Amino acid sequence: MKRVIAIDGPAGAGKSTVAKIVAEKLGYTYIDTGAMYRGVAWKTLQQSQEARDEDILRAVQDIDVRLACTESGTRVTVDGTDVTREIRTPEVTHIVSRVAALGSVREKMVELQRAMAADGAVVMDGRDIGTNVLPNADVKIFLTASVEERARRRYDEMKEKGYAVDFDELKHEIASRDKQDSERAISPLRQAEDAVLLDSTSLTIDEVVARILKLSE
Ligand code: CDP
Ligand code: CDP
Fold it and tell me: Which CATH class is domain 1-28+121-212?
């Protein structure tokens, strides 16, 4: 039995959706590392709408970010406040890649993530899990899909949640976040050499889950 599963890939590839189901099926803990960077971005915006680098560094300095697995999914708290919904707003999404590019933000988050995975039995998703956070993971997946398909998925999701979104704007935001995440100096988004590439463009959620479970046997 493989006890540590790492899933990386660009925005909207389906990482959190499938990671959550795989974790449930295996009785593992699901760790959404993107939610942690979103938590830092949320706190920064609480303190300054400009979100300059020094504002981000101030926000992360004494931050207490926690993830809790509940029946209704992962709850995220920042300094004791539940921000599960607030970290998904377009404002947070707009600055999160800039927040996540800073070395001291990454250092702090990676330390927490490694501690959370220390006892095994985890499915962790993000951008640098297989390459940097958990290089010894038993299973590494690089989950991707065409940018068109990823934008379509995110568009449907945002509409369902009641956000007024423009498809082309969303596609542009996703492409620009992928570019920032792939081109940053520290732990950029890339497929680990020993990761299995899964293109979900024309796969259902169940098909992706089945493939990951098979690789985890
Ligand atoms: O769910 P979505 O794909 O929109 O993004 P997310 O997983 O919530 O991650 C938000 C952002 O956090 C990403 O665009 C990255 O900039 C950053 N991130 C990161 O740098 N490293 C990770 N391990 C996870 C997320
Ligand atoms: O975590 P990441 O940003 O990679 O993606 P997500 O937040 O899981 O969003 C993916 C969206 O696409 C969700 O609304 C899923 O229902 C949908 N979807 C999927 O995840 N996988 C497929 N194979 C097909 C659709």
Answer: alpha beta
Residue with the two structure tokens 């449930």 = 24
β-pair type (122-126, 29-32): parallel
Question: Hey, which residues does 198 pair with through a beta bridge?
Answer: 143
User: pLDDT digit string (tens) for 43-90?
Assistant: 999 999 999 999 999 999 999 999 998 888 899 999 999 999 999 998
Tokens of 82: 């539940």
Q: Coil, helix or strand for 118? A: coil
Indicate the DSSP class of residue 195. Answer: P
Separation of alpha carbons 131 and 152, rounded Å? 28
CATH superfamily label, 31-119: P-loop containing nucleotide triphosphate hydrolases (3.40.50.300)
128 lines ligand 1 (CB under 6 A): yes
| Ligand 2 centroid to residue 129 C-alpha, Å | 18
- ipTM of this predicted structure: 0.97
